[in-house]
Specification:
Order of helices and strands: EHEEHEH
Number of strands: 4
Helix content: 10-25%
Strand content: 5-15%
Radius of gyration: 11 Å
Bound molecules: iron/sulfur cluster
CATH architecture: 2-Layer Sandwich
CATH topology: Alpha-Beta Plaits
Distance between the termini: 23 Å
Strand order of the largest sheet: 1-4
Structural class: alpha+beta
Length: 88
């Protein structure tokens, strides 16, 4: 399991600042969205990012709302297949 940032994100960036494992990465210009990703290999599921988010944009993968379900795979693909592959 891991946390996932959904399109409800408005780029406040507080999550990346608070993450104790530097698991949240901002990727400028990869697409209109997503721009923030969470590395599922290094995330320790502490929940600090979700608690800090002012837009309630971050969820445990199993709790991601149905309309954002694709973003669980999109987030993981960024790390397993490389930047850009997540958008194919
Ligand atoms: Fe970082 Fe914790 Fe959020 Fe994982 S749950 S991305 S470790 S702040």
């Amino acid at each position: 399991m891991t946390y996932v940032i959904t399109p409800a994100c408005e780029l406040a960036g507080l999550c990346a600042d608070i993450c104790p494992t530097d698991s949240i990465h901002y990727v400028e210009g990869s697409s209109d969205w997503p721009i923030y990703y969470i590395n599922p290999e290094t995330c320790i599921d502490c929940g600090a990012c979700a608690a800090e988010c002012p837009n309630e944009a971050i969820y445990m993968d199993e709790d991601v709302p149905a309309e954002y379900a694709d973003y669980v795979e999109i987030n993981e693909a960024f790390y397993t297949k490389g930047p850009g592959a997540e958008l194919v």
